């Protein structure tokens, strides 16, 4: 039960109910679609890059609480950041949710994203938490690609 | 719950049945396992587990190949299982039962063998919106190879096949084959297969029935149904994974070309010309899953100890009990309201994604499946990304229905 509370922390439930940066940008410079065929989660990410920084970013789609909250938290976290910073954040989040980072979560670096640490105890939910990040990577580095959680090798 | 007496049902001693399944005694997250995912795969009784290990411990040898005694015994065990499967589905002859890796491979066999030999550009294969992906994709593949196309029959809001649309589909000039599901894994609907077979045959069109979810719940008689092919898997029938069967009418199987080549499926091989073995061996290339077949036979024997009518009544009472409990709860929508259902209740909880429901139920020891159930067209049809599916087997009890309902209360607590 306590593990369940670690997964569904208040911040996550709140971002699920009232997702931030929800919708689509009218004139994105980059975008990508993400899909998790196992649970039917779908996500569209639109963003505007200015001078190598993410000036604005939005997501929409449908998904479980974990994937929606993760996308919402991600958009907040990467807004204003450079591509390299976003990539580094992804690496940190990935290490945290897969449990590779161990139990020490660097809250200074991860900020609010640290609420996703409970995911590590639920291997079946790692893909939910990382879908938005894989989609961001596709938008930034493989323009226009569609990512699927089932075509990556984890 | 594990210490309370288990309410029995006429004709079935549930406590004794449960005791035959070692896995059911387990605790999950510190709670008794409530296994409501039998449509995905059933648990295995000790008799099946023992049969497979006894085969390896005392009989193991390759079949149909050697003169030594073990090989003879292995062949007997293998062919004995074929006769058991024959009796289970009431096939006329045991050679009408082809062992495959499972239901999926059985359908692929028909698509690649019958389909490639008989489909021409513009021909139509009639499927339905209710199909499992394993009865869609093999037909799309063979359509790509032959230039034929797939037509899908609509389903109604209640989750039944639209019979008018089925008749329309059959009325088309280019219909060559029909392939459809007996019992829906996503909705639970039991389709009127006898009637559907009759309609297809009126048009002179052969029909395959995907019986993966029917065989565990209903008495199936392929001769009474008169279907041309019937496909199913052992692992949904209390047997091992990786083994299943294709029933095909002997006359059709004889006409069909092999689809995989190798040992056992040949009569003679020279570089000039190879002739093929007889049915069913023509379709069983290579060393098969012998232990799996033995376990399959043991599962059939085990299941046949029970009265299928009593089993069907028991599972129906579980479906009805859960349906009534869910209908009485706020914010739950059942997907699939066919009057005749078997073993499955699919639903969504308003405002909570099925995946989250699944995680919370699991933390309470309740195992259900959440997702699209390999039936994306069904999800699209009802406008849901996924559902929660509770499915029943012979060992489930009304107490377990109550455990699911209680665990759904936890979902509301967390998600408000
Ligand atoms: C209706 C139906 N058809 C086919 C299959 C495929 O069975 P298998 O994966 O055992 O080949 C399933 C199982 O998931 C099913 O429910």
What features would you describe in this structure?
The complex is a heterodimer of chains A (154) and B (416). Chain A is of the alpha+beta class. Chain A has one domain (3-148): Sufe protein. Chain: A (Alpha-Beta Complex). Helices cover 41% and strands 19% of the residues of chain A. Chain A has a four-stranded mixed sheet with strand order 3-2-1-4, with helices on one face. Chain B has helices spanning 14-19, 46-59, 69-89, 103-118, 137-146, 163-171, 193-202, 222-225, 250-255, 290-303, 308-327, 354-363, 376-381, 398-415, and strands at residues 27-28, 31-32, 34-35, 97-100, 124-128, 149-153, 175-181, 207-210, 229-233, 244-248, 266-269, 274-276, 332-335, 344-349, 366-367, 369-371, 387-391. At the A-B interface, helix 1 of A face helix 12 of B. The site of pyridoxal-5'-phosphate has 13 residues of chain B, from helix 4.
Mean pLDDT of chain B: 95
Beta-strand proportion of chain B: 15-25%
CATH topology name of chain A, in short, is Sufe protein. Chain: A
Strand pairing plus helix content of chain A: what structural class? alpha+beta
Percentage of residues in helical conformation of chain B: 25-40%
CATH architecture grouping of chain A: Alpha-Beta Complex
Spatial sequence of strands, sheet with the most strands of chain B: 4-10-9-8-7-5-6
């Amino acid at each position: 039960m306590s593990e369940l509370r670690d997964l569904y922390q208040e911040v996550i439930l709140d971002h699920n109910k009232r997702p931030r940066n929800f919708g689509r940008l009218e004139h994105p410079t980059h975008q990508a679609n993400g899909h998790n065929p196992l649970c039917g989660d779908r996500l569209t990410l639109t963003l505007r890059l200015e001078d190598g920084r993410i000036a604005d970013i939005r997501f929409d789609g449908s998904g479980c609480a974990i994937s929606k909250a993760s996308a919402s938290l991600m958009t907040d976290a990467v807004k204003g950041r450079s591509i390299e910073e976003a990539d580094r954040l992804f690496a940190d989040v990935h290490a945290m949710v897969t449990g590779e980072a161990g139990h020490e979560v660097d809250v200074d670096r991860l900020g609010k994203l640290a609420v996703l640490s409970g995911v590590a105890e639920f291997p079946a939910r790692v893909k939910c938490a990382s879908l938005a990040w894989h989609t961001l990577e596709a938008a930034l580095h493989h323009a226009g690609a569609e990512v699927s959680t089932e075509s990556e090798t984890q | 719950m594990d210490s309370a007496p288990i309410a029995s049902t006429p004709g079935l001693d549930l406590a004794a049945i449960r005791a035959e399944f070692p896995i059911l005694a387990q605790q999950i997250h510190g709670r008794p396992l409530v296994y409501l995912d039998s449509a995905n795969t059933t648990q295995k009784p000790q008799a099946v587990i023992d049969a497979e290990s006894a085969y390896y411990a005392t009989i193991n040898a390759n079949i149909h190949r050697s003169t030594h005694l073990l090989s003879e015994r292995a062949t007997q065990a293998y062919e004995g299982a074929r006769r058991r499967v024959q009796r289970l589905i009431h096939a006329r002859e045991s050679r009408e039962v082809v062992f495959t890796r499972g239901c999926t491979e059985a359908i692929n066999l028909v698509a690649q063998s019958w389909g490639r030999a008989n489909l021409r550009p513009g021909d139509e294969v009639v499927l339905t919106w209710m199909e499992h992906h394993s009865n869609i994709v093999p037909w799309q593949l063979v359509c790509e190879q032959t230039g034929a196309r797939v037509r899908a029959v609509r389903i109604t809001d209640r989750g039944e096949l639209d019979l008018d649309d089925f008749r329309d589909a059959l009325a088309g000039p280019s219909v060559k084959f029909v392939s459809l599901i007996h019992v829906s894994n996503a909705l639970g609907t039991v389709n009127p297969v006898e009637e559907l077979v009759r309609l297809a045959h009126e048009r002179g069109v052969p029909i395959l029935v995907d019986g993966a979810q029917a065989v565990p719940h209903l008495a199936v008689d392929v001769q009474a149904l008169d279907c041309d092919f019937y496909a199913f898997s052992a692992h949904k029938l209390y047997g091992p994974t990786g083994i299943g069967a294709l029933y095909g009418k002997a006359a059709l199987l004889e006409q069909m070309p092999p689809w995989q080549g190798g040992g056992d499926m040949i009569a003679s091989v020279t570089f000039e010309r190879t002739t093929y073995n007889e049915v069913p061996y023509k379709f069983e290339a290579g060393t098969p899953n012998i232990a799996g077949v033995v376990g399959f036979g043991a599962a059939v024997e085990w299941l046949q100890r029970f009265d299928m009518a009593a089993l069907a009544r028991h599972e129906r009472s579980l479906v009805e009990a859960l349906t009534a409990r869910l209908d009485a709860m706020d914010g739950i929508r059942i997907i699939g309201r066919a009057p005749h259902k078997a073993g499955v209740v699919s639903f969504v909880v308003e405002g909570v994604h099925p995946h989250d429901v699944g995680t919370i139920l699991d933390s309470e020891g309740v195992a259900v499946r959440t997702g699209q159930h390999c039936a994306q067209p069904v999800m699209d049809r009802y406008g849901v990304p996924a559902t929660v599916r509770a499915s029943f087997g012979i060992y489930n009890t009304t107490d377990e229905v109550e455990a699911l309902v209680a665990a759904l209360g936890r979902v509301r607590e967390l998600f408000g």
